[in-house]
Amino acid sequence: MARLADYFVLVAFGPHPRGSGEGQGQILQRFPEKDWEDNPFPQGIELFCQPSGWQLCPERNPPTFFVAVLTDINSERHYCACLTFWEPVEPTQEELCARDAAERDEEADEGGPGALPPPTPSPPGQLFAPKTLVLVSRLDHVEVFRNSLGLIYTIHVEGLNVGLENVVGNLLTCVIPLAGGSQRTISLGAGDRQVIQTPLTDSLPISRCSVALLFRQLGITNVLSLFCAALTEHKVLFLSRSYQRLSDACRGLLALLFPLRYSFTYVPILPARLLEVLSTPTPFIIGVNAAFQAEAQELLDVIVADLDGGTVTVPECVHIPPLPEPLQSQTHSILSMVLDPELELADLAFPPPTTSISSLKMQDKELRAVFLRLFAQLLQGYRWCLHMVRIHPEPVIRFHKAAFLGQRGLVEDDFLMKVLEGMAFAGFVSERGVPYRPTDLFDELVAHEVARMRADENHPQRVLRHVKELAEQLYKNENPYPAVAMHKVQRPGEASHLRRAPRPFPRLDEGMVQWIVDQATAKMQGAPPAVKAEKRTTVPSGPPMTAIVERSGGLHGNSARRLEVVRNCISYVFEGKMLEAKKLLPAVLRALKGRAARRCLAQELHLHVQQNRAVLDHQQFDFVVRMMNCCLQDCTSLDEHGIAAALLPLVTAFCRKLSPGVTQFAYSCVQEHVVWSTPQFWEAMFYGDVQTHIRALYLEPAEDRDSFSVGEAPVQEDERSALDVASEQRRLWPTLSREKQQELVQKEESTVFSQAIHYANRMSYLLLPLDSSKSRLLRERAGLGELESASNSLVTNSMAGSVAESYDTESGFEDAETCDVAGAVVRFINRFVDKVCTESGVTSDHLKGLHVMVPDIVQMHIETLEAVHRESKRLPPIQKPKLLRPRLLPGEECVLDGLRVYLLPDGREEGAGGPGGGPALLPAEGAVFLTTYRVIFTGMPTDPLVGEQVVVRSFPVAALTKEKRVSVQTPVDQLLQDGLQLRSCTFQLLKMAFDEEVGSDSAELFRKQLHKLRYPPDIRGTFALSLGSAHTPGRPPRANKDKGPSFRTLSRNLVKNAKKTIGRQYVTRKKYNPPSWEHRGQPPPEDQEDEISVSEELEPSTLTPSSALKPSDRMTMSSLVERACCRDYQRLGLGTLSSSLSRAKSEPFRISPVNRMYAICRSYPGLLIVPQSVQDNALQRVSRCYRQNRFPVVCWRSGRSKAVLLRSGGLHGKGVVGLFKAQNAPSPGQSQADSSSLEQEKYLQAVVSSMPRYADASGRNTLSGFSSAHMGSHVPSPRARVTTLSNPMAASASRRTAPRGKWGSVRASGRSGGLSTDVGSRLAGVGPPQANGAPPEPGFLRPQRAALYIIGDKAQLKGVRPDPLQQWELVPIEVFEARQVKASFKKLLKACVPGCPATEPSPASFLRSLEDSEWLIQIHKLLQVSVLVVELLDSGSSVLVSLEDGWDITTQVVSLVQLLSDPFYRTLEGFRLLVEKEWLSFGHRFSHRGAHTLAGQSSGFTPVFLQFLDCVHQIHLQFPMEFEFSPFYLKFLGYHHVSRRFRTFLLDSDYERIELGLLYEEKGDRRAPQACRSVWEYVERLSKRTPVFHNYMYAPEDAEVLRPYSNVSNLKVWDFYTEETLAEGPPYDWELAQGPPEPPEEERPDGGAPQSRRRVVWPCYDSRPRAQPDAISRLLEEMQRLETELGRPPERWKDAWDRVKAAQRLEGRPDGRGTPSSLLVSSVPHHRRSLGVYLQEGPVGSTLSLSLDSDQSSGSTASSSRQAARRSTSTLYSQFQTAESENRSYEGTLYKKGAFMKPWKARWFVLDKTKHQLRYYDHRADTECKGVIDLAEVEAVAPGTPAMGAPKTVDEKAFFDVKTTRRVYNFCAQDVPSAQQWVDQIQSCLSDA
Question: Inter-axis angle of helices 1232-1249 and 1213-1221, to 10 degrees?
Fold first, then answer.
């Protein structure tokens, strides 16, 4: 029984002590005045009576009622029912006098006593103060409180004749039962009657209509998210203007959470004074008046539910995990069925007339039933995961969270994880885990109804029925007696609050109330306590749990087979059949990825343990450990599936004898798993074991025979669970004697204690590493240090280096290095022992004893381990494969010898035997070597079924772009090991795991050495340069000093002079910055004149005119003349250098030596082509307008149109301004910057005038689109005119004409397509552009065009206004920058060589990442701009390419333009010249872009040159017959321009190469004899030996200008990026790639056709060009072989090839096809774009013809290349044969049976007595012999029998066999006589012999 009300309080308004406008509450009276002993008076009630603050108001408000909830320190809730009414404020003395008169008048007007007094208007200044009646109770009977306070107020207002003291006294003494479904009628002594019903069970919450109202206000989705937020401990704030609504909403939310109890801050109505509570860090559910909404907005992590507006606002930083599917969607749909039953019928054609809608109270219970079902589904089977740790004196219960999540299949589920970790669930376990207690609706539901819920899932009506049944029970619980008599309580009259109350609320007589209370208390003490005994029972456990979503069966359809494999393998291991086991092992390791197989392994291994011990031999031990490691590697730290738990007893059981007295257990080999360092795992294991032992205590001794075997439950009659046993014991407990109770408590306590000791041992086994000197183990396991935070994040090795984890979290200092392993383990175990022992009630003495014991246990174990470690080292090591030493280049040295590693598969599938088929070559086991030139891995596949293939993967050290540490599993032992992932820009990736024998220091040394080699401090440290110095053994001292200055001294002088000349601005060599602005404006320091004259005369300057050269300079000159540029200039006729260096005036251009000292431009070559009319001294000034001083110079001239191509750096801002904005002629006082830009203008004018067509300076024929009259007014001063390429007007025009114009897409990403109208009309022609991005027809340019187009960067020309001037035009285009190339390449590299296998590999994912890289888009842009320039040049206009600094994109474009325009550059010699001229001499920064030295490390790798090669490759694909070099040549250059094997691509300019003495050193007899230093030299030498760089399809058209398609759809990914050969590493170091030669296939002695030795060619293993060479290479090889056999000196392949081509031409002559292209089927330019060319057998003899057909090739191509070789033999043979072609003694058709499983074929046989052989051909006219049977080998000729597949119509006697020493040939003639004839002929041949 309990008091209905504890206190009655009267609170009134009082002024604020500090005199502010707001008042405060004052307690006028409280009853009883003394606190109850069991329930002290709650503080702060006055705040809660007026939550918005105590304020006076100008008019009377109607009385209000609400219930606030206060929570005391014991988390008991007190319900404060508050009824507030308003009374006039007491007036002061003066006011009273004024008011008396008015009151007398009113009394005179009053009617009879029965009539209600009319409402009195309050005086104008009257204020009203609130007064509150408060009832404080621990019971939640809102209606009773409302009625009781209402009654007191009614008595006061209506003036009823009832003593208020009596009513209050009765109220305080009323006692009612707590629960049990009774009903009490109470009266407060004022003629009233109330009936109170108590709920049936106390545990179910009472919700009345609150849940239904909550759903009405917020809707389903919002309430669900609030429900999830409350469960996952978020902060929830309700807002409303009504206090009663707030308390209802909070009550409703709590009711939904049942059976969990909310244990955080719960304040349904929060007073305004306490608003700062909202910023508390703990979760809460709080209600606040909507007036304070603004304060709520500032809270960042609070979920705000606005009840009045129906919204729920979740802040961005808060994530509310949803319910796991399918529960979320099921719950949602059931809720909508309950709330809106008409929804189901809304679509019916004939809806039923009416639907019964439940009352609000009933709907409330239905909604709660839905959530009750939800919890039953969520927590189904929770009792199976309870661990009974203690039964007596009080039950101690723990919940095994990991097992619960694992078995429900919800390991990943965020929601359930958070709920199980929350406080509410902890309370749930301690309250409901108890096995013997009263049960309620939820216990029944979760135990018995789950199966029904699962069955009903898809039947909404059945679900609804179930919900209604549950709702009935909930309703009955709240209203056990539905048909009760109604309450009878007086209420005040209608507008009673408006009347003036007769008096303020009176002061009650305390004495009288106290007397009533005391009377009642005395009476109560006498009466016996009416306690209704609780009915306690054993709580049902229900069926074992199942997964929430059944896993699809298809996933492990073959799991039975897998388990079979696991079982077989284990039985083989224990039977000692090691070879069998070895075969199965890879399959077992794969199967162990599945959970079932892991469980199976644990069970199978259990069977082999007798008496807790199983001694194995070394091999068995090894196998068992490997399988255990494989099992454990996929265990998470929580071990949800109990795999680690099942293996724990086993790792201490399996062992092997190392030597007498030394045994090694399996635990020392399986320590590297995260699960062992997770405290939660050990706790769950410990509690599980304690439960087993405690259960055994209470079972009869007979029952626990084998209850300790963890593997399977004891199979006995008594299958009682620990909970059942505990329930029984709790029931018996009160009946036991005191001594017996003590004894049981002690037994349990000592059980727990002994288990704690056992676990301290177990933990030391698994935490102490075998080699205790290694602290690596602990560093990797942060878990040991972080028990408190319970975080067990495994510190991966990528961090381990930098983060030394703290092991001593208490002391707070971290020193991982010195930290001893033992100390860390002791601390870890002590924390564990502390936690579990205090939780399970171990006495403090025992606990102290344990703490003393732990260090001894650990120390003992360390000592045992030392012996084991010592002995295990003596074991003969497992036979690891021998390290294969890589082949090295001459001069390449090993820096670090092989470190054992595993090469793991990366994302490329072929090597791992992916969908491409083929065996899994990776992972491979071997070693990594570091040499001065390369990083090399050599090894063998770990999969024993692949065979003895050697796997090699290597790349040049210089190509390394990224190195990162990874933590990876070794493929064999499945251990976590340190690894390295190295990625190179030659598209190789080494992902390696170091073998355990490689110490971390060796791995670190490897990294450091690698880094040192990759980034040498100086360029001299690179392989190409260090090679020469290191390997020139004792060179004789130089004696030839008298021969004049040597080249080296010369180059030194050169550099010295250059430095002098350049002046102070350039002292540091590496700085590329252009000189600063101050310098740029001034003349160079040597020029002492004030102004740079713009006149034509020569001015004295330091740059001596070329006529007077010093002798040493002449020497320089002659060496410069030998450079590639100069040779090319002379070829193009761009000027000559006579000995006196005088100019030939007729030439428009000249070669100027102005830069021979590299004084004007450091990055330009020494000799430059400039217009004839420009003096050298003017060039210095012109160069200042351009970035890096790279002024425009000519680099190529078209032979046909005589247009020239110029290149320069971009313009400096100032130069541009000067060039385009100066309108007037220069005045004498003009600034120097302007004069230099005038100089520049003159220079461009000179360029224009040196072009033959524009030589007259009148400028009228420049046809710039304006009439000459228009220009008459202007001085004809040449200015440029700007043509922009993104003019919106024109854009729309060009869009109308065609999808994409020639110019329209040149802009990279301009805002609008198209081009300005007039460059459009002038350049783009009118005809629509071709589809496919193909160039329009050559005639597309109009005759009206500028003499010179300047292709510039759009960004440079931003401020320029289009200015219609004459001679040249600007074409601004948007180009990408070097950093974009770098970023794009990074992505391309990731796409082609991903670091880890894709989650779902598909071709689409590769294409997607390729597209993201935008690499092909950049290539498209380059080709597009180049084709544009080619068109302009072809049409006779000159072009100046002036982009960025003039050394990246400019170089790409200029080189591509020359390649497309000039066939010379498409030859091997020409391409070399092009690269030497444009890339090397013109200063592309190879070292900077390739990050060759330490200084360049930060800038990273930017493959500008590679991008150019890719463009060339794209053109090569489209025009395969135009290039003399093969695609391999491009790949070769692509590989070696980054490899640093050759000196060619080192350094950034000729100047730097001279400074290092590299440029001229090679001339003369001092050339180093050994390695090739120049890549060109190497190519030349190699080309003599092999045709690998030669393109057989080379058949150029004369002077063909190529115009490739450039759309992305026409581009192909270069196979250089994707192919790899694991057999020998990259094939670009030719000496290494030529593996051991394959043995030549001997001729069959019997002259039969040699058996083709078939071999498998794997796409990623073999080098395909070598395994399957094309026909011509094969023939050339064969010729060489035959010539060697014949003892002739083999002729060079080139000569043979040239001879064949010449013969072909001669044969072609009679047909009238005398052109060189007669080799080809067609010479129509369009058809020359071909995808591939097949070699075909021609009709005449064996001459070769080439076909351009891309799809069908004739049958002979398909026939094996071996036969192709034969054909060539026959032609070669013909040289040595007699005149008559063949000796045919006898011939005819025979059927011959092919080799095994081959069909019979009719062949033409020739018996040749001269050569003593039987030859056969395909048909009579065939000249190619298909095979030979040597008669010398024939043993017998006998009649044969028809074999399978023989011709059906032939007589049996027509068959005969020829038996040779090698095999039997089956023949069949057309009839019997001819068979006889053949046999006789052969016999006679044999007898003749």
Answer: 70
Return d(Cα 138, Cα 719) in angstroms, integer: 45
Long-range Cβ contacts of 1668-1675 (<8 Å, 24+ apart): 1668/1761, 1669/1761, 1670/1592, 1670/1735, 1671/1735, 1671/1757, 1671/1761, 1671/1764, 1672/1587, 1672/1592, 1672/1697, 1672/1735, 1672/1744, 1673/1587, 1674/1761, 1674/1764, 1674/1765, 1675/1764, 1675/1765, 1675/1768
* C-alpha–C-alpha distance, residues 1615 and 1067, integer Å: 45
1419: phi then psi, degrees, rounded to nearest 5: -65, -40
SS3 100: helix
Q: Mind listing the pLDDT tens digit for each residue in 822-856?
A: 888 999 999 999 999 998 888 888 889 999 999 99
Handedness of CA 1220, 1225, 1227, 1228 (dihedral sign): positive
Residues 230 and 220: their CA atoms lie apart, in Å, by 15
The strand pair at 77-88 and 128-137 is best described as antiparallel
Enter the DSSP assignment of 1481.
I
d(CA 899, CA 992): 11
pLDDT tens digits for 1757-1801?
A: 333 344 444 444 444 444 444 333 456 778 888 888 877 777 888
- Determine whether 817 is exposed, middle or buried from the number of CB atoms within 10 Å of its CB (0-12, 13-18, 19+): exposed
Paired residues of 387 in beta bridges: 398
For residue 1455, pLDDT over 50 is answered with: yes
- 565 neighbors 572 (Cβ within 8 angstroms): no
Q: Which of 674, 690, 581 is nearest to 626 (CA)?
A: 581
Question: Quick one: residue 674, left, alpha or beta (phi over 0 = left, psi -120 to 50 = alpha)?
Answer: alpha
Instruction: Name 1057's Cβ contacts closer than 8 Å, sequence gap at least 6.
Output: 1157
Ordered strands of the 1193-1197 beta sheet: 1149-1152, 1168-1171, 1193-1197, 1204-1208, 1438-1442, 1348-1353, 1368-1373, 1280-1282
Element (H, E) at 692: helix 679-698
- If one counts every other C-beta atom within 10 angstroms of the C-beta of residue 334, the result is 23
Q: Give Cα 992 distance to the centre of its chain.
A: 19
**Spatial distance between the Cα atoms of 153 and 148, rounded to a whole number of angstroms:** 9
Question: Is the previous residue joined to 941 through a cis bond, with omega within 30 degrees of 0?
Answer: no
- pLDDT per position as a tens digit, 1820-1862: 888 888 888 888 888 889 888 887 778 878 888 888 899 888 8
Q: Which tokens is 629 given?
A: 């490691």
pTM for the whole structure: 0.55
Q: Does the pLDDT value for residue 779 go beyond 80?
A: no
Helix-then-strand count for the chain, H and E? 58, 45
Query: Within 10 Å of residue 106's Cβ, how many Cβ atoms?
Result: 12
Q: Please provide the distance, in angstroms rounded to a whole number, between the alpha carbons at the two ends of the chain.
A: 131
**Beta-carbon neighbour count of residue 534 at 10 Å?**
11
- Please give the Cα distance from 1245 to 529 (Å, whole number): 120
Q: Of 1611, 1545, 1544, 1596, which is closest to residue 1574 (Cα–Cα)?
A: 1544
**Cβ neighbourhood burial of 824 (10 Å; 0-12, 13-18, 19+):** buried
Q: Helix (H, G, I), strand (E, B), or coil: what is residue 338? A: helix
Please confirm whether the linkage preceding 326 is cis (ω < 30° from 0): yes
Q: What is residue 1556's three-state secondary structure?
A: coil
The Cα 1210–Cα 1677 span in angstroms is 52
Q: Dihedrals φ, ψ of 274, to 5°?
A: -105, 20
What gap in Å lies between CA 1149 and CA 1140, rounded to an integer?
17
Please check whether residue 928 is in contact with residue 990, taking contact to mean a CB–CB distance below 8 angstroms: yes
1155 in Cβ contact with 1177 (< 8 Å) = no
The residues facing 939 across adjacent strands are 926, 951
